[in-house]
Amino acid sequence: MSSLFSNVYPPSAFYFKVVFGTTLGMTDTSFQEVSGMSAEIETETVVEGGENRYVHTLPKGVKHPFLELKRGIAPLTSPLVVWCKSVFELGFIAPVVAQPIVVQLLDEKQLPLRVWSFANAYPVKWEVENFGSTKNEVAIEKIVLSYTYSNRLI
């Protein structure tokens, strides 16, 4: 597929890259799945005195779900594992360090088609999925991140 058609057809969702602020633009490891890239406006219902036909729905602010990353269990030397260990295993003796995260949807030439940035992200959950003696699958870890806001850059 040429780059001419990349702008015509919707991009595939399987070729992407996640970059963390502490890895200086290098990819830590491949991820199986990224989810939680959405924004929603919180609303407040206000009843107007004397008007019974409707209520006003007013915007309050934007909320974001957690960003979830899934991948095969990485070695202890992975920058993401080091970051998660510092948050979950040091008993808060050191401050939690937030960092920017960028998710890029790539084309066949490894060029970004779409880019999302997530500001001030930090891990809030680190989970290893179930092991099963009847499974023939890779052991998966899931890292759940909170962030303050996101932007779509491209």
From TrEMBL:
Pfam families: Phage_T4_gp19
Protein name: Phage tail protein
Domain of life: Bacteria
InterPro entries in alphabetical order: CHP02241, Phage_T4_Gp19
